[in-house]
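Q: I have 624 residues here and want to know how they pack in 3D. Can you give me a structure?
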Amino acid sequence: MSSVASNMESNRVSEVCSELWCLSKSNRCITNSIPAAEGTLCQTHTIDKGWCYKRVCVPFGSRPEGVDGSWGPWTPWGDCSRTCGGGVSSSSRHCDSPRPTIGGKYCLGERRRHRSCNTEDCLPGSQDFREMQCSEFNSVPFRGKFYSWKAYRGGGVKACSLTCLAEGFNFYTERAAAVVDGTPCRPDTVDICVSGECKHVGCDRVLGSDLREDKCRVCGGDGSACETIEGVFSPALAGPGYEDVVWIPKGSVHIFIQDLNLSLSHLALKGDQESLLLEGLPGTPQPHRLPLAGTTFHLRQGPDQTQSLEALGPINASLVVMVLARTELPALRYRFNAPISRDTLPPYSWHYTPWTKCSAQCAGGSQVQVVECRNQLDSSAVAPHHCSAHSKLPKRQRACNTEPCPPDWVVGNWSRCSRSCDAGVRSRSVVCQRRVSAAEEKALDDSACPQPRPPVLEACHGPTCPPEWAALDWSECTPSCGPGLRHRVVLCQSADHRATLPAAHCPPAAKPPATMRCNLRRCPPARWVASEWGECSVQCGLGQQQRSVHCTSHTGQPSRECTETLRPPAMQQCEAKCDSAPPGDGPEECKDVNKVAYCPLVLKFQFCSRSYFRQMCCKTCQGR
């Protein structure tokens, strides 16, 4: 069996507790993806003999307790899905700190969270976000053809799927299972789609916000900025032309016009410039959207077959509702909320602004909701002095992003360069930490932080260094005892010590000394040196032998500093062994031939070693 097949078989044996593999008649490994029975023998890299217990291989005979899972840290918030108009940012976490094992419980709670972002209004004239997503499929073929797509606004489709209508063709289709997060679920609503589901948001476009529009469509208002005007209009007599029904002032909201005679075909709307903005409506029951006066009017048919024209508003121009009274007298019910005139409404009031962005992405931040003074008529922000200081609302604050931060590197500042000129090295501290709260940080092992670790050292460079003196090592002290000198070579070199320069390039005052006095130890005193003893002055009997004695310094040179009393002798007595001879055969009697003053002089001047003088002065030389 090959090593690859052997490894595969080994892996399958170790995974038997989670998935049982069997050998077929054709010698192939097969499985039906079910675990082995409890108690089945198993083996892993760390367990030589084990058994299956709750789909895990554990030591044989043991029944360990399961470990419940626990959530790991939240990931940092992702990019916002929109640049304006209310987008969504998300963060996720995993059940891996620790993972559930041996039947342990899985983590409870949300694995993914969302928050609102970029809630400010888009610029006037910006393309509708859903229309933008449909138009991106214009360059994508559909069933082999290219179409120009626009958003489908009709019913019968999922609110958060991207359903697009092919312009010029009588069909629509779902181009994506889910729209981009932050797309409004339906027209004229602030609710948005998140992960393919419609989620409620407050009127401040913040997920989870409790702020609601009042009847005047003022976010967080109390309904005091407008008044409801409603009624039923029926002309007394039929006549030629249109007849005015009601005047709807600029800024009105929640406009509702219903024809009690089942059709709005005789309805007309007139603008400020006395021009007809709308004349006659289709009698078909199909829904229609009519952009008009800065808002969208919807033509709808109720369960009792009556038709109505509705708009959320506010309208940016005053409208006059008119009817054409002919043979059949129309009857209209109308209702709208009109802004209260400046004379009866306090012009300015305090309002809460949306929550600020969280001050920290993790480990505990804060959000603030401040108040601002607004114009009641158009909800625009004005200077604070316009509102009453006594009625000012308190500032709100709340905690946010309280979960611990993921481990990350905490990097200190770089130190100064190790050299003030040319190339050097600088360092900094790099520590793996995890911020638990605003006031607590926990140091971790380097392996817990993202790799690779930021560098601790780096090269640094300064200006070019000037030439400098470079001294070589000192020589040995000469002489080796007593007062002496050490010497060394001093060179003028470039800063990198690669080139030797003339001495004039370096500052003379900074030149190191080239010689130095030294005294390793005191020199030994002069001493007497004696040579080997010479031969004895006689060959038989007592004689004298001599040697030379000189005063020598420690260097071997002649000296006069030796102590005379310690001078070794230069002469000593010696005795030479005489040979024995039979009587009559012996030599002549040893005597001095010259008995005057000759023999003493021979002895005095050490001539006894010479055979002639030794024979002539035998007695004197032998000391007899």
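Q: Anything worth noting?
A: The helical segments are 3-14, 129-135, 598-604, 611-616, 618-621. The first strand starts at residue 21 and ends at 23.
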